[in-house]
Structure formats: C-alpha cells, structure tokens
Amino acid sequence: MASSESVAASVVKALGHPLRMRILTFVTERGEASPVEMSRALDAPLATVSHHTRVLRELGYIELSRTEPRRGALEHYYRALAAPFLDDEHWDMLPIPARRRVSAQLFRQVVEDAAAAGEIGGFDGAGAHIARLMLDLDPRGWRELSRAVLTLLRRAEVIQARSDARRDGERIEDESSCPSELAILHFAVAEPASPRAAGRRRRTPPPRLP
C-alpha cells in the first residue's frame, strides 16, 4: 500500500502543473475527451497536451475509455478517475510559484465562466448565488473557515454522486439535468477589513425552513 507521503506527492505532481489541472478539469466536465479535443479547447500544442495526458494516466487520474479510427489513425479518448482537487495538505506541498500559477489559471477560468453565465441568465433562477463577505479573522478563525470550505466541497461531491446514482437508476432524460458550477474564493487581502463594512449580495432569497 502506498504511503500517505507518496500519495500526496502524486497529487502534487498531477495537479501542481496548471495545464494538467486544466486537462483533468476538461475531461471531468466533458465525461471523456481526446488529446486532439483538449488541444483545441485549451489552445495548447497537441504534443504538450499528449505529454501531460500520459502523466495523468500514469498517476491514475485518467484512463483510456475507448479508441476511434480517424484518418488512418486511432484517436484515444480518456475519462477522469479523480476530481481536480487540492486540499490544504497538498496545497502546502506546492512551491509558491506553482501555487500562484495554479491560482491564476483557476481564477481566470472562474471569472470567464461566471461572466458567460451572467450574460445568459445563469444567476437568474432560484438557488443561484453570488456573494461577497469581507472578514478580519484571527489565525484560528482562518483555519476554521478553511475547514468549513473543504467540508462544503466534499459535501458537493457527495451530492453529485447521489445525483448520478438517481439518474442511472431512474434513467432520467438529459432535459432534467441542471448543469452548474460551484466556485469558492477565500484569499488574503492587502488591507484588514472590518466585518461592519462587509458587502453582501444575494440574488435569491434564502429558502424558508420548516
């Protein structure tokens, strides 16, 4: 059995490179994809994408799902075996430059996705949220909030798994699907903020509890 240190090192190697993070995210969202499709969608050279795809496969994050003849060759399609997720322990193992590259890439993707969703009414429906809350925490409060964020993300994974199981068991049509994106940002700012000056905006009212 692999040690926790080797598992952590594997996670960092797989997700510590921004392009590998993007590849795994793309495959996870698409269900499956080929290096050719990834190259076009991510605007990266095919040879570079193929290299990072091999690394992810060797580390057990993706697997070959099928092959398809195309123009005298076989196009390989891959599906994700693990979500593109770095917890606090793995994040601490990344060198500072790598953290900043990964953060910048994820931030750009979140902003692009949110802006595109806003233009088509992605925040109009019940249950959609956009909020901003300024905090001034002590070290203990920072750690508590970090754990709360991780708990929410893990809970979201469980909800997704249960949703998948219901769809598989009931054979629900694609029209009943509700694609969405959950993005959470918690970061240090240059100036301390007073909670009294917090700004918060919520597009939909909170649900009424029984």
Rg of Cα set: 20 Å
Tally the helices: 7
> What is the name of the CATH architecture of the largest domain?
Orthogonal Bundle
**Largest sheet composition:** 2 strands, antiparallel
Number of strands: 2
- Overall structural domain count: 2
One letter per element, helices H and strands E, the order comes to HHHHEEHHH
Helix content: 40-55%
Straight-line N-to-C gap: 47 Å
**For the record, what is the CATH homologous superfamily label of the largest domain?**
Winged helix-like DNA-binding domain superfamily/Winged helix DNA-binding domain
Supply database-style keywords.
single chain; 210 residues; mainly alpha; Arc Repressor Mutant, subunit A; 2 domains; two-stranded antiparallel ribbon; 7 helices; 2 strands; 51% helix; globular; disordered C terminus
Describe this structure in words.
The structure is a single chain. The protein is mainly alpha-helical and 210 residues long. It folds into two domains: 1-90, Winged helix-like DNA-binding domain superfamily/Winged helix DNA-binding domain (Arc Repressor Mutant, subunit A), CATH 1.10.10; 121-205, no CATH class. It has helices at residues 4-15, 18-30, 35-42, 46-58, 88-93, 96-119, 139-170, and strands at 62-70, 73-80. The chain has a two-stranded antiparallel ribbon. Strand 1 and strand 2 form a beta hairpin. Helix 2 packs across helix 4. The radius of gyration is 20 Å and the shape is globular. It starts with a helix and ends in a 40-residue tail after the last helix. The model is unreliable at 196-210 (pLDDT under 50).
